[in-house]
Amino acid sequence: MKFKIDALTRVEGEGALEVYLRNGKPEGLKLSIYEPPRLIEGILKGKPYNVIPDITARICGICPIAYQMSGVQATENAFDIKIPKEIEEIRRLMYFGEWIQSHALHVFFLHLPDFFGVPSILELAKIDKELLLAGMEIKRAGSLIVQMLGGRTSHPVSLIAGGFSSLPESLSGLMEPLELALEKSLWAIEKLKGLKFPDFELKGIVFVSLWEEDYPILKGKIDIQGQKIDASSFKDVFEEFEVPYSTAKHAKLKDGRTYLVGPLARFNNAFEKLSPLAKKISVDMGLEPPVNNPYKSLLVRMVENIHSLDRALEIVKGYKKPEKASIQVKPKRSTGFGVSEAPRGILWHRYTFDEKGTILEADIVPPTSQNQPAMELSLWSFLEKQKEISESWLQEHAEPMIRNFDPCISCATHFLKVKIKSV
Questions:
Q1: Using CA atoms, how far apart are residues 365 and 376, in angstroms rounded to an integer?
Q2: pTM across the whole model
Q3: Which of 39, 68, 184, 371 is the most exposed place for a label (fewest CB within 10 A)?
């Protein structure tokens, strides 16, 4: 027997979940990605270094800045370029813009309907229209940051190796929308903290995030629950591997442990580095590390948005256009590494260049590929606890579990297919 759902929304990309049952009990499962690979790493080979931000941005329409940021930082690492702190702060602000709009999209429009027991935001709007309008206002603020600094909201064009191609004279136009978005975020999290979260905890999963002076987003060492490594050592500690049922690679620690990247990992590893306001909100609602319930990632994303808006306002208030938007880039034969925190977790890049800056090799490890084993392990633990699994039960409960991780399978289409097979 096969059960199939053809057009489930609220998951970015095309994927399939197959659950194998024997006498109503789970015997196996596969979370597969069946989209044709776009071969971005192959496309980059033979191209000049300056195309990295433009080409890698096309990997994702939701988090293009993450791909651009890791890419330009890998280029700068290869060519021994040190970015001035004032330029780094503006990059941090731009990245906050992406976090704000991505988290708002996921929380209010992709994930929240699950907690209200409705299939879409259209039905949710009938229950709480004001909550969705708040989500739109928050997302708008993030988009305005990206548009002002990047030239446009989708696939921005200003980020380059060495800095920016250009920067605005003033950012004062961001103050009002950011202040409104922060106000709406504080109001919304008060409502959301009262939601009923299913009782479930991640077990046997290592939390991995970046470690820097601030709450991790822009750069830093890779923190494996206390063990900190450089980006250049990523492939020494982590291992990518292929599975026959997915066109996307999976990843584990080389010692065999399953790990998780993203909001829960950042929150658990770097809670003390949240802005004072974000930390106070978390403590007041009893949300403190370790948070092992993936359903509560909804609240963690809201806390990260409050942190992002709080810090963004701080940067905007102190903004003064730098005398130079970028510094000179001098290519050389080298290899560079870059890693940053996409909304869904660490995004790692490695490039090898010749003396003219032509790309000889490219290697990109996105967060969703890293999280697939953790998603499968969580699903398996979830299913094992059920006395009996029916098709309707799986449809109602398995997909929300997957949505906890906000998988960005791709940005071309948005549906998940679920299949149940009886053995």
A1: 18
A2: 0.93
A3: 39
